[in-house]
Specification:
single chain, Fructose-1,6-Bisphosphatase, Chain A, domain 1, globular, 37% helix, 260 residues, binds calcium ion, binds D-MYO-inositol-1-phosphate
Length: 260
């Protein structure tokens, strides 16, 4: 695959995510249309998740028939040219009327995270990154905060019921003890974007799935951030722990989180 093939994919997906965002926003504005169900403990699903994923699957298959796709709702297979998508990340926020949700589309070329597009339509924010070409928010270059002092670090700690509560609480306890300010905002994908633009200094979660981070990892790397090797082992199909942060905070945060 040439650099032009990658550039073509990056542009094409920006068009698709704009339309996907309009579809999702329409559901978001009509709460009665959401058809909320639960897949498990705190694992929310709305009608919009399936509709947005089907739209993206159909359009990507038309445009790039040889690529494969893995989606949160419909699964799929990895290949040397694979899209990894989360139709709505932060579904609990979406279902409750909180604007902190997004559509996340990542592309891995030969297992390397290469394109990351994350749209947060209710916030009017579009993050775009292409490997080797920087990261932008609404067209403006972004960079990590550069913070090197753990005692003023702002850390987002993601949680899901997939992780035993004690593991999460241990990490949180060590983070507070070290002097971090800790928060959770309910979208792992946007959590990574917020490291990339310096709103936070780090995002960590003991287990997260590939569709939550495939796009964000490109955005963080292109904004100058550090991340653990998320796609090591079977990360693409079963997930892994995630830690993204400013490079200077990485050694301490690796100790605190036990990740990386
Ligand atoms: C979840 C969110 C959450 C993270 C979880 C994810 P969903 O995805 O990103 O912030 O902590 O690990 O499963 O269910 O909103 O698509
Ligand atoms: Ca998700």
């Amino acid at each position: 695959m040439t650099e032009t093939d990658i550039l073509l994919r990056c542009y094409a997906v920006q068009g698709l995510v704009a339309e996907a965002g309009r579809i999702a926003l329409d559901y978001f504005s009509r709460k009665e249309s959401l058809g909320v169900t639960m897949k498990g403990t705190q694992d929310w699903l709305t009608v919009a998740d399936g509709i947005v994923e089907t739209y993206l699957r159909t359009r990507l298959a038309e445009l790039f028939p040889d690529d494969t796709l893995i989606g949160e709702e419909g699964g799929g297979d990895a290949s040397d040219a694979v899209w990894i998508i989360d139709p709505i990340d932060g579904t609990a926020n979406f279902a409750r009327g909180d604007r902190n949700w997004c559509i996340s589309i990542g592309f891995l070329h030969e297992r390397v995270p290469t394109i990351g597009i994350i749209a947060a339509p209710a916030l009017d924010e579009l993050y775009v990154a292409r490997r080797g070409h920087g990261a932008t928010l609404n067209g403006q270059r972004i960079a990590v905060s550069g913070n090197d002092d753990i005692r003023r670090a702002y850390v987002e700690l993601g949680w899901s019921a997939r992780t035993p509560a004690q593991r999460y609480l241990d990490v949180m306890g060590r983070a507070y003890a070290a002097g971090c300010s800790v928060k959770r905002s309910g979208s792992g994908a946007l959590g990574l974007c917020h490291v990339a633009n310096g709103r936070t200094d780090a995002y960590a979660e003991p287990h997260i799935n590939a569709w939550d981070v495939a796009a964000g990892l490109v955005i963080v790397a292109e904004a100058g951030g550090w991340a653990n090797d998320f796609f090591a082992g079977d990360g693409i199909s079963t997930g892994n722990p995630i830690l993204c942060c400013t490079p200077a905070l990485a050694p301490q945060l690796r100790d605190i989180t036990g990740i990386g």
